[in-house]
Amino acid sequence: MSKPAGRGRGSSGPKRGGGSNQRPSGRGGQQGRPGQRRGGSAGGSSNRRSGGPQGGGREADPRTPGRGLGGKQVEGRQAVRELLMAEKRKIYEIIISAELEGDAGVSDIVEIARAQRVPLSYIARAKLDRDTRSEAPQGVMALAAELEEADFGELLRTRNGVKPFLVAVDGVTDPGNLGAIIRNCDGAGVTGMLLPKHRAVHVTPTVAKASAGAIEHVPIALVPGLPATLAQLKDHGIWIVGLDDGADRDLFELESLADEPICLVLGAEGDGLSRLVRQRCDSIVAIPMLGRVSSLNVSAAAALSTYEITRGRKRSS
After folding, report:
1. Please, what are the domains in the chain?
2. What is the pLDDT of residues 239-286, one digit of tens each?
Protein backbone atom coordinates (compact mmCIF):
# COMPACT_ATOMS: atom_id res chain seq x y z
CA MET A 1 0.00 0.00 0.00
CA SER A 2 1.58 3.27 -1.07
CA LYS A 3 1.76 6.25 1.24
CA PRO A 4 -1.27 8.51 0.78
CA ALA A 5 -0.73 12.07 -0.40
CA GLY A 6 -1.86 15.24 1.44
CA ARG A 7 -5.14 15.12 3.35
CA GLY A 8 -7.46 17.58 4.99
CA ARG A 9 -7.69 21.34 4.83
CA GLY A 10 -4.47 22.88 6.05
CA SER A 11 -3.08 19.45 6.86
CA SER A 12 -0.03 17.59 5.67
CA GLY A 13 -1.75 14.24 6.19
CA PRO A 14 -3.36 11.96 3.60
CA LYS A 15 -6.19 13.25 1.43
CA ARG A 16 -9.64 11.71 1.57
CA GLY A 17 -11.30 10.52 -1.57
CA GLY A 18 -9.95 9.85 -5.03
CA GLY A 19 -7.15 7.61 -6.23
CA SER A 20 -6.08 4.20 -5.05
CA ASN A 21 -5.69 5.38 -1.47
CA GLN A 22 -9.12 6.86 -1.00
CA ARG A 23 -11.02 6.39 2.21
CA PRO A 24 -12.10 2.76 2.53
CA SER A 25 -15.67 2.08 1.55
CA GLY A 26 -18.21 -0.41 2.75
CA ARG A 27 -19.72 -1.22 6.13
CA GLY A 28 -17.81 0.28 9.04
CA GLY A 29 -15.33 1.97 6.71
CA GLN A 30 -13.70 -1.34 5.74
CA GLN A 31 -11.86 -1.74 2.50
CA GLY A 32 -13.49 -4.08 0.07
CA ARG A 33 -11.21 -7.05 -0.52
CA PRO A 34 -12.23 -10.59 -1.47
CA GLY A 35 -12.23 -13.05 1.38
CA GLN A 36 -12.75 -12.67 5.09
CA ARG A 37 -9.64 -12.87 7.25
CA ARG A 38 -10.01 -14.15 10.76
CA GLY A 39 -8.38 -11.71 13.16
CA GLY A 40 -7.93 -10.70 16.74
CA SER A 41 -10.03 -7.95 18.20
CA ALA A 42 -9.41 -5.29 20.60
CA GLY A 43 -12.22 -7.01 21.59
CA GLY A 44 8.71 12.44 57.22
CA SER A 45 7.92 9.24 59.03
CA SER A 46 5.36 8.58 61.71
CA ASN A 47 3.97 5.42 63.27
CA ARG A 48 0.49 6.89 63.33
CA ARG A 49 -1.52 7.47 60.27
CA SER A 50 -2.08 11.14 59.64
CA GLY A 51 -5.49 12.59 58.97
CA GLY A 52 -4.48 14.17 55.69
CA PRO A 53 -2.11 16.71 54.26
CA GLN A 54 -0.17 18.94 56.56
CA GLY A 55 -0.41 22.70 56.63
CA GLY A 56 -3.25 25.20 56.67
CA GLY A 57 -6.48 24.97 54.76
CA ARG A 58 -8.87 22.09 54.55
CA GLU A 59 -8.18 19.71 51.69
CA ALA A 60 -10.75 17.52 49.99
CA ASP A 61 -10.63 13.91 51.12
CA PRO A 62 -8.43 12.16 48.54
CA ARG A 63 -10.53 9.02 48.92
CA THR A 64 -13.62 10.79 47.60
CA PRO A 65 -14.24 9.84 43.95
CA GLY A 66 -13.61 12.75 41.60
CA ARG A 67 -15.45 13.72 38.45
CA GLY A 68 -12.44 13.55 36.18
CA LEU A 69 -9.79 10.99 35.41
CA GLY A 70 -9.43 9.66 38.95
CA GLY A 71 -6.13 8.31 40.21
CA LYS A 72 -6.43 9.72 43.71
CA GLN A 73 -5.59 6.40 45.35
CA VAL A 74 -2.51 4.66 44.00
CA GLU A 75 -1.59 1.14 45.11
CA GLY A 76 1.38 -1.13 44.50
CA ARG A 77 5.10 -0.47 44.86
CA GLN A 78 5.90 0.35 41.24
CA ALA A 79 2.88 2.61 40.80
CA VAL A 80 3.65 4.53 43.99
CA ARG A 81 7.34 4.75 43.05
CA GLU A 82 6.46 6.28 39.66
CA LEU A 83 4.01 8.66 41.32
CA LEU A 84 6.83 9.98 43.51
CA MET A 85 9.41 10.13 40.75
CA ALA A 86 7.12 11.90 38.28
CA GLU A 87 6.53 14.83 40.68
CA LYS A 88 3.53 15.94 38.62
CA ARG A 89 0.87 16.11 41.30
CA LYS A 90 0.52 16.66 45.01
CA ILE A 91 0.93 13.59 47.19
CA TYR A 92 -0.91 13.80 50.51
CA GLU A 93 0.39 10.67 52.17
CA ILE A 94 2.26 7.42 51.61
CA ILE A 95 0.91 4.54 53.69
CA ILE A 96 2.93 1.37 54.23
CA SER A 97 2.16 -1.86 56.02
CA ALA A 98 3.83 -1.86 59.46
CA GLU A 99 5.43 -5.23 58.78
CA LEU A 100 7.43 -3.64 55.95
CA GLU A 101 9.11 -1.00 58.14
CA GLY A 102 12.82 -1.27 57.37
CA ASP A 103 12.19 -3.67 54.45
CA ALA A 104 14.61 -3.25 51.55
CA GLY A 105 11.75 -3.69 49.05
CA VAL A 106 10.23 -0.32 50.00
CA SER A 107 13.38 1.51 51.09
CA ASP A 108 13.58 3.60 47.91
CA ILE A 109 9.94 4.66 48.29
CA VAL A 110 10.59 5.72 51.88
CA GLU A 111 13.75 7.58 50.87
CA ILE A 112 12.06 9.50 48.04
CA ALA A 113 9.02 10.31 50.20
CA ARG A 114 11.21 11.73 52.95
CA ALA A 115 13.27 13.74 50.47
CA GLN A 116 10.06 15.24 49.08
CA ARG A 117 8.61 15.77 52.58
CA VAL A 118 5.61 13.60 51.84
CA PRO A 119 3.89 12.40 55.04
CA LEU A 120 4.72 8.74 55.61
CA SER A 121 2.71 6.38 57.81
CA TYR A 122 2.90 2.74 58.88
CA ILE A 123 -0.34 0.97 59.74
CA ALA A 124 -1.42 -2.60 60.43
CA ARG A 125 -1.51 -4.80 57.34
CA ALA A 126 -5.12 -5.79 57.98
CA LYS A 127 -6.22 -2.16 58.03
CA LEU A 128 -4.27 -1.39 54.88
CA ASP A 129 -5.85 -4.32 53.11
CA ARG A 130 -9.31 -3.06 54.10
CA ASP A 131 -8.56 0.36 52.63
CA THR A 132 -7.04 -0.79 49.35
CA ARG A 133 -9.10 -1.61 46.26
CA SER A 134 -6.75 -3.55 43.98
CA GLU A 135 -5.54 -7.10 44.23
CA ALA A 136 -2.12 -7.57 45.87
CA PRO A 137 -1.33 -3.91 46.70
CA GLN A 138 2.06 -5.10 48.04
CA GLY A 139 1.64 -3.28 51.33
CA VAL A 140 1.95 0.21 49.83
CA MET A 141 -0.64 2.88 49.07
CA ALA A 142 -0.54 6.59 48.27
CA LEU A 143 -3.20 9.28 48.45
CA ALA A 144 -2.72 12.03 45.89
CA ALA A 145 -4.43 14.80 43.97
CA GLU A 146 -6.51 13.65 41.04
CA LEU A 147 -4.76 13.15 37.71
CA GLU A 148 -4.92 16.21 35.51
CA GLU A 149 -6.64 15.73 32.18
CA ALA A 150 -4.59 16.41 29.06
CA ASP A 151 -5.65 19.28 26.84
CA PHE A 152 -7.49 17.75 23.88
CA GLY A 153 -6.33 20.44 21.48
CA GLU A 154 -2.69 19.85 22.41
CA LEU A 155 -3.01 16.16 21.61
CA LEU A 156 -3.89 17.04 18.00
CA ARG A 157 -0.67 18.94 17.37
CA THR A 158 2.68 17.78 16.05
CA ARG A 159 5.18 18.39 18.83
CA ASN A 160 8.97 18.31 18.49
CA GLY A 161 8.56 16.74 15.09
CA VAL A 162 6.39 13.88 16.38
CA LYS A 163 3.01 13.60 14.68
CA PRO A 164 -0.02 12.64 16.79
CA PHE A 165 -0.14 8.95 17.68
CA LEU A 166 -3.33 8.55 19.67
CA VAL A 167 -5.18 5.59 21.15
CA ALA A 168 -8.92 5.81 21.85
CA VAL A 169 -10.81 3.18 23.83
CA ASP A 170 -14.41 2.47 22.93
CA GLY A 171 -16.21 1.27 26.05
CA VAL A 172 -13.39 -0.64 27.80
CA THR A 173 -14.78 -1.30 31.28
CA ASP A 174 -12.27 -3.72 32.82
CA PRO A 175 -9.78 -1.74 34.97
CA GLY A 176 -7.04 -4.36 34.58
CA ASN A 177 -7.32 -4.09 30.80
CA LEU A 178 -7.26 -0.29 30.83
CA GLY A 179 -4.21 -0.24 33.08
CA ALA A 180 -2.36 -2.66 30.81
CA ILE A 181 -3.34 -0.60 27.75
CA ILE A 182 -1.94 2.56 29.34
CA ARG A 183 1.29 0.72 30.14
CA ASN A 184 1.51 -0.47 26.53
CA CYS A 185 0.91 3.04 25.25
CA ASP A 186 3.71 4.44 27.37
CA GLY A 187 6.13 1.81 26.08
CA ALA A 188 5.16 2.25 22.42
CA GLY A 189 5.47 6.03 22.44
CA VAL A 190 1.79 6.87 22.10
CA THR A 191 1.41 10.64 22.37
CA GLY A 192 -2.02 10.63 24.01
CA MET A 193 -5.09 8.59 24.96
CA LEU A 194 -8.79 9.39 24.62
CA LEU A 195 -11.25 8.03 27.18
CA PRO A 196 -15.03 8.49 26.91
CA LYS A 197 -16.58 10.23 29.92
CA HIS A 198 -19.35 7.64 29.99
CA ARG A 199 -19.56 3.86 29.54
CA ALA A 200 -15.87 3.39 30.26
CA VAL A 201 -13.67 2.86 33.31
CA HIS A 202 -11.43 5.73 34.36
CA VAL A 203 -8.31 5.60 36.57
CA THR A 204 -9.19 3.43 39.58
CA PRO A 205 -6.62 1.93 42.01
CA THR A 206 -6.63 -1.25 39.90
CA VAL A 207 -5.96 0.76 36.73
CA ALA A 208 -3.10 2.61 38.43
CA LYS A 209 -1.51 -0.62 39.65
CA ALA A 210 -1.96 -2.47 36.34
CA SER A 211 -0.34 0.44 34.52
CA ALA A 212 2.78 0.09 36.72
CA GLY A 213 2.84 3.86 37.10
CA ALA A 214 2.34 4.68 33.41
CA ILE A 215 -0.69 6.81 34.33
CA GLU A 216 1.84 9.45 35.42
CA HIS A 217 3.38 9.66 31.95
CA VAL A 218 0.71 9.10 29.29
CA PRO A 219 -1.44 12.19 28.54
CA ILE A 220 -5.11 11.22 28.83
CA ALA A 221 -8.08 13.33 27.78
CA LEU A 222 -11.71 12.68 28.63
CA VAL A 223 -14.06 13.18 25.70
CA PRO A 224 -17.86 13.58 25.86
CA GLY A 225 -18.60 11.27 22.93
CA LEU A 226 -16.17 9.16 20.97
CA PRO A 227 -17.92 9.26 17.55
CA ALA A 228 -18.05 13.08 17.57
CA THR A 229 -14.46 13.24 18.79
CA LEU A 230 -13.27 11.01 15.97
CA ALA A 231 -14.97 13.35 13.49
CA GLN A 232 -12.96 16.22 15.00
CA LEU A 233 -9.76 14.25 14.58
CA LYS A 234 -10.53 13.77 10.89
CA ASP A 235 -10.97 17.53 10.51
CA HIS A 236 -7.41 17.87 11.83
CA GLY A 237 -6.00 15.41 9.30
CA ILE A 238 -5.72 12.45 11.67
CA TRP A 239 -6.44 9.00 10.27
CA ILE A 240 -8.81 6.81 12.27
CA VAL A 241 -8.01 3.09 12.35
CA GLY A 242 -10.27 0.68 14.24
CA LEU A 243 -9.12 -2.70 15.51
CA ASP A 244 -11.78 -5.38 15.19
CA ASP A 245 -11.90 -9.10 14.39
CA GLY A 246 -14.54 -8.53 11.71
CA ALA A 247 -12.08 -6.75 9.42
CA ASP A 248 -10.89 -8.10 6.08
CA ARG A 249 -7.59 -6.21 6.23
CA ASP A 250 -4.47 -7.07 8.25
CA LEU A 251 -2.93 -4.83 10.87
CA PHE A 252 0.38 -5.38 9.09
CA GLU A 253 -0.91 -3.56 6.00
CA LEU A 254 -0.91 -0.24 7.87
CA GLU A 255 2.75 0.51 7.24
CA SER A 256 2.01 3.35 4.81
CA LEU A 257 -0.12 5.11 7.44
CA ALA A 258 2.19 4.58 10.41
CA ASP A 259 4.09 7.82 9.82
CA GLU A 260 0.91 9.86 9.39
CA PRO A 261 -1.09 11.44 12.23
CA ILE A 262 -3.08 8.44 13.43
CA CYS A 263 -5.60 7.38 16.06
CA LEU A 264 -5.99 3.68 16.85
CA VAL A 265 -9.42 2.78 18.25
CA LEU A 266 -9.76 -0.25 20.52
CA GLY A 267 -13.17 -1.84 21.03
CA ALA A 268 -14.79 -2.98 24.25
CA GLU A 269 -14.23 -6.42 25.72
CA GLY A 270 -16.56 -8.83 23.94
CA ASP A 271 -18.60 -6.27 21.99
CA GLY A 272 -15.77 -4.74 19.99
CA LEU A 273 -16.31 -1.41 18.25
CA SER A 274 -19.72 0.23 18.55
CA ARG A 275 -21.67 0.91 15.35
CA LEU A 276 -21.17 4.69 15.35
CA VAL A 277 -17.47 4.38 16.08
CA ARG A 278 -17.05 1.87 13.23
CA GLN A 279 -18.71 4.35 10.89
CA ARG A 280 -16.16 7.03 11.84
CA CYS A 281 -13.16 4.82 11.08
CA ASP A 282 -11.22 5.27 7.84
CA SER A 283 -10.13 1.65 8.02
CA ILE A 284 -10.83 -1.41 10.17
CA VAL A 285 -8.00 -3.89 10.64
CA ALA A 286 -7.53 -7.20 12.40
CA ILE A 287 -4.63 -9.08 13.95
CA PRO A 288 -4.12 -12.34 12.03
CA MET A 289 -4.91 -15.36 14.21
CA LEU A 290 -3.18 -18.54 13.07
CA GLY A 291 -4.37 -20.84 15.84
CA ARG A 292 -7.77 -22.05 17.02
CA VAL A 293 -8.58 -19.07 19.27
CA SER A 294 -10.28 -16.33 17.26
CA SER A 295 -9.28 -13.22 19.19
CA LEU A 296 -6.90 -11.66 21.71
CA ASN A 297 -7.53 -9.84 24.96
CA VAL A 298 -7.90 -6.11 24.28
CA SER A 299 -4.71 -5.23 26.17
CA ALA A 300 -2.69 -7.82 24.22
CA ALA A 301 -4.20 -6.50 20.98
CA ALA A 302 -3.26 -2.97 22.07
CA ALA A 303 0.35 -4.03 22.62
CA LEU A 304 0.67 -5.64 19.20
CA SER A 305 -1.05 -2.85 17.29
CA THR A 306 0.69 0.09 18.99
CA TYR A 307 4.11 -1.47 18.52
CA GLU A 308 3.33 -2.25 14.87
CA ILE A 309 2.66 1.45 14.32
CA THR A 310 5.85 2.33 16.20
CA ARG A 311 7.81 -0.12 14.03
CA GLY A 312 6.41 1.50 10.89
CA ARG A 313 7.36 4.96 12.14
CA LYS A 314 10.91 3.88 12.89
CA ARG A 315 11.32 2.34 9.44
CA SER A 316 10.15 5.51 7.70
CA SER A 317 12.30 7.86 9.79
Report:
1. 24-41+149-316 (3.40.1280.10), 73-144 (3.30.1330.30)
2. 999 998 878 799 998 877 889 999 999 998 778 899 999 999 999 999
pTM: 0.80
Count CA within 13 A, CB hemisphere, residue 227.
9
94: closest CA among 118, 67, 123? 118
- Dihedral sign, Cα of residue 241, residue 246, residue 250, residue 253: negative
From CA 5, how far away is CA 164, in angstroms rounded?
17
Burial class of residue 240 in the structure, from the number of CB atoms within 10 Å of its CB (0-12 exposed, 13-18 middle, 19+ buried)? buried
